Amino acid sequence: MGGLDKLIPCTVQVAKMIQKSGCDVLCIIDRQIPSELVEQFNEFRSFDKAFDSVVSCFKSQKLNLPVVYSPVPELSDYHDVRTYQQAAAKSLQRAIKAGFKSPLLLIPESKKFRNVELCTVLGALEELYVPIQLREDVPDKRQRIENLSVLISNPKAEEIVKEALVLESGRFVARDIGVGDPERMAPPRVEEYVNKLFDGLKVTVISDVNTLTKEYPLFAAVNRAANSVKRHQGRIIFLEYVPPQPAKKTLMLVGKGVTYDTGGADIKAGGIMAGMSRDKCGAAAVAGFMQIVKEQKPADVHVIAALCMVRNSVGEECYVSDEVITSRAGVRVRVGNTDAEGRMCMADALCRMKEIAVAENLPDPHLFTIATLTGHAFVAAGEGYSIIMDNSVARAADHARKLQDIGTSFGEPFEVSVIRQDDFDFNTGKVIGEDILQCNNLPSSRTPRGHQVPAAFLMQTTGLDKHGLESQKPLKYTHLDIAASAGEHPKMPTAAPIIALAKAHLS
Question: What family does the Swiss-Prot or TrEMBL record give for this protein (predicted)?
Fold first, then answer.
């Protein structure tokens, strides 16, 4: 697979038949089993009522091959394709625990889920990911297995696997950035990683503190304490893909890349700071999406991305509540809580995207922010679910519902929330001299509409609220809060929702 090799957890091949696959274990995840195993499976079922509900490992004499069986449960109307992904992951977990190095995964068909084959392969690849620091520090452990073979009855098997590898390469990049600890993926080292990866894209890095202070003042406020430590100094990394044909649409993505969130002066206490190196998974997802763009090379889609990489440090230089800071768009923002740094670090880059969309008259622009932004999103949606919020223009195009449907069909489910006037009113300045109050002093999980309010803030501080349906230049804008779907520490990052975004906007 050429340049993809370094972004895939092991070699992957399509097998034509079990006997000549060269595998050392057969992994089965559904009740569609080879004819050679029917008698043995029925025998096991005759005395083991749990056989179709737990993972088992045994030897098939007819195939002369060990077998791992990771059954899919009886499906209800409310299951989705993640059931197959989870079963594939469990089968490989068991195979690895047993010491096998070259599993063959039997990919099922499903009338219920049309993308089951692609999603099952992706579920297996996700389980095989090894964190970047372990790969670098202990090369002998850079792979969990040596080779994965997949047996797919679909005549388009080769195409399915090829697509899975492209999508997985994006998720691999997102996991690398997301899982890296506060030093391994500090802003300058993210810049280094990105520069090595995206040689085919235009990469522009803004790191000069004077430029940041002048042009990205809200970001610069968050960066102020970290800037005194060279290895922690912030970066805004712009990536651009220009298609070979005239663009029919433009995607503009801004990702929250807080490499470590202490909470700043409003410091996180009571043990809740652990895991805050994952607060960069929004920017990680944007980088992963750009990897997919780089590989797919869409003919007529122009893509511009910004990774807002910053550490929310605490110290004598940190920004504090009650400061009034004027945003790039000229909006006077009073800081209410320094732990609401995510909206601060993205706003000016989002404003820059808005300016580019308007000034360059880009075709069909759609702006996005992607962030592990609020605990409220976790409470509202539950673990594993992203939340979509469209502005009025994107909502008129029914974008959120379409993305939700696509996400569900590819194992990246969304819940849809609506931005309302209440959310804008909540942010309105309380005294003369301020236009917007950045945050209240309750946790988002205890704030009514705690995940919608930041979306309104991002519109108000950038001037996007002036680009609605009745404006001279309507702009589509979507905020994705992935706090609940990015992967809870210490689990591996999921890289959600880049597959859904790629399927919705690059196909």
Answer: Belongs to the peptidase M17 family.
